[in-house]
Amino acid sequence: MAAKGTKENPWKLKTPPNTSEYEMYKDVKDGKEVIVCVVGKTTLLYDAQCLADLQQMLKKHGDWMDLGGADEQKEAKEGTVEAWGRSPKNPVKGWYGLKKGLRGRFGVYVPPLMEELGLAELTHEAKNNKMKAK
């Protein structure tokens, strides 16, 4: 069996409220390690560095943090994982999302992967989910 997290054997995940399924896997694009997120017919890309950076930020934060998922075109609620994932103050100085027009939704799709990898805990409510580092 292929290792989990490859194109041949992707992580099968659900959004935090457990309402929508999607897949993620690691790949290399233009010499950069990326996380490919496939939601239906839409493919998003995130800088793979986000996993370590997000866990480190959550450890410093020390408590539960709102996810706050939002599309790229919408303003992210301040103090959320989504806002951090696009902030000029994060380690990459901006967006972890790499596909112009589809760079948002960081707070929706990355946290369940963090949970799957044992790096974070998530709540699974209908709305307003949170996460914290493990």
Question: How would you sum up this structure, described in words?
Answer:
This protein is α+β, with helices and mostly antiparallel strands and 134 residues long. The protein has one domain. Helices cover 20% and strands 27% of the residues. The protein contains three helices and seven strands; from the N terminus they run ββββαβααββ. It has a four-stranded antiparallel beta sheet with strand order 1-2-3-4, covered by helices on one side. The longest helix is centred in the middle third of the chain and has 12 residues.
Task: Pick out the low-confidence regions.
Answer: none
Structural class: alpha+beta
Q: What's the structural domain tally? A: 1
Radius of gyration: 14 Å
Largest sheet: 4 strands, antiparallel
What percentage of the residues does DSSP assign to strands (E)?
A: 25-35%
Total strand count, please? 7
Strand order, main sheet: write it out.
1-2-3-4
Q: Which shape, going by the Cα principal axes?
A: globular
Chain-averaged pLDDT: 96
Number of helices in the DSSP assignment? 3
- The helix/strand order is EEEEHEHHEE
Give structural attributes.
alpha+beta, 7 strands, 3-stranded antiparallel β-sheet, globular, 134 residues, single chain
